[in-house]
């Protein structure tokens, strides 16, 4: 069973023999400078402002025990820790934007590219509430795009991801779907408590992709999907929150049903997939690779560098939606390779 971070008020409550790290002294020094940047290059500990600040911080710390690390860390309380963790985001992200971004409920299904998306969301101080779904375990071939090591092979991807989130954000509230989601469960994943504000689709199953959009449209939940092309990323945005009658997949596959998606096999399946993620923007090499899956390739090729770009693109889209910034439905190409051409 996956263990969560455990919070303690006193060091005496910690399990015996665990490694202890007191991060509070250095955290308070950094927080003081963040709030008083005029003292950044001064010896400030003799100043009355420092002494007043320390008085205000009295009692605002707690121990966090990370069972998988057998380590306990003394941290400032949640608001102070979040202020510290997002201090360098300002003013690229304003305080108000950061708070709205933090409060949005996001669900991610699929932890290949999805793992990079989650990393980007967490690093940028994004959603406190995350639903995550994946049934798979880490394989050696995943190590080109998932941040893990050889010692993690055979571990459930969802466990690795949860630990990575909590290592950075122990206050995160995670709902973990270790068996993934099926077409029958996707409605509960999207609308069950807490209801999602944004759904991110990084699943492989075509029929579940269709079911997810039908459920999201009915619930008025926007859907984001990033497809990596090798050296570029295609970002699909479906604003069902703004367009309740919008056709799924931008209408490029007509009124595709769950049953039709499930029935598609072999060439018919690839034809559908090429419609869904293809178009003139798909690089020739990626298109040719898709046709080799099951013949000369065991799976769809993916690059870790592209997954990182996808993470950045999707996390920005989430932030825009959370802050009610303009982001229309459609397909957006983030072309890294193209931008490096003369």
Looking at CATH, the homologous superfamily of the largest domain is NAD(P)-binding Rossmann-like Domain
- CATH C-level class of the largest domain: Alpha Beta
Share in helix: 25-40%
Q: Might you state the CATH topology name of the largest domain?
A: Rossmann fold
Reading side by side through the largest sheet, how are the strands ordered?
Answer: 7-6-5-8-9-10-11
Number of domains: 2
**SSE pattern, N- to C-terminal:** EEHHEEHHEHEHEHEHEEHHHHEH
Unreliable stretches: none
Structural class: alpha/beta
Number of strands: 11
What portion of the residues fall into strands of 2 or more residues?
15-25%
**What Rg, in angstroms, do the CA atoms define?**
22 Å
List the SSEs and their pairings.
Layout: E1 6-8, E2 19-22, H1 24-35, H2 48-57, E3 61-66, E4 71-76, H3 78-85, H4 95-103, E5 106-109, H5 113-123, E6 129-133, H6 157-168, E7 173-177, H7 186-191, E8 198-201, H8 206-219, E9 223-228, E10 233-238, H9 258-263, H10 266-277, H11 284-292, H12 304-322, E11 330-334, H13 336-339
Parallel strand pairs: 2-4, 5-6, 5-8, 6-7, 8-9
Antiparallel strand pairs: 1-3, 3-4, 9-10, 10-11
Helix pairs in contact: 1-3, 4-12, 5-6, 5-12
What does this structure look like?
It is a single chain. The chain is an alpha/beta fold. The protein has 2 domains: 6-85, no CATH class; 95-339, NAD(P)-binding Rossmann-like Domain (Rossmann fold). It has helices spanning 24-35, 48-57, 78-85, 95-103, 113-123, 157-168, 186-191, 206-219, 258-263, 266-277, 284-292, 304-322, 336-339, and strands at residues 6-8, 19-22, 61-66, 71-76, 106-109, 129-133, 173-177, 198-201, 223-228, 233-238, 330-334. Strand 8 (198-201), helix 8 and strand 9 (223-228) form a beta-alpha-beta unit.
